[in-house]
Amino acid sequence: QKEPPEDAALKYAARVHARQQIGHALDKALAAEDLDALESHFPALLGTSPARSYAERWCGKLAALAEKKHQEPAFAAWLEKLSTGAEPQNYRGIFVTRLTQAKLAALRRKEPWTADDRAAALRCFAESVKNKADAKALVAQLEELTDLCRKRLTHAAADALSEDARALFAVDSPERKRAEAALKELDRKKAPK
To answer: Are 107 and 151 a contacting pair, CB within 8 Å?
Structure first.
């Protein structure tokens, strides 16, 4: 049975009011640089069914604060829980993208790298590919990973990165095609002009 228009309007108004109240609490927590409070209010924000871009902006603000306070591992754990939890699945892509970025930010600061760190960086790339990150972002991520491998490991580890990245995906899979396109673009950028 279809809901009367008055009831739908009241529910919409209640959701908007709740979103404003939660937004105010988020603003206060952000001003206080209280990452725990931001993380505790964020699921309630999602419960108000905000536009994806609104949720993405707030997730970005949380990510920036986590990076500023060097709390990427804790932020990544929170995002991991959020992305696999019962939160609305239409926001899952936001969480996975930010999760990958948080993991990479933590790796960026780590010196020296081990083989496990290199493997973690490759997993981040695989997550980005599976999450259908745009080609420009994939190329930038590969470029950064290659540079980090050169600085934190060896030139050989950086040179083998392309082959290892290809090996992450089945040969004829859409993910492999996206990864191949990013690798080709990276090769084109590195080629002498």
So the answer is: no
Q: Which residue type is seen at 84?
A: T
The whole-angstrom separation of Cα 132 and Cα 123 is: 14
Residues 46, 86 contacting (CB under 8 angstroms): no
d(C-alpha 179, C-alpha 184), whole Å: 9
* pTM for this prediction: 0.71
- Taking only the tens place, the pLDDT of each residue in 58-116 is 999 999 999 899 998 899 889 888 877 666 677 887 887 888 888 888 888 888 888 89
Contact 167, 180 (CB under 8 A): no
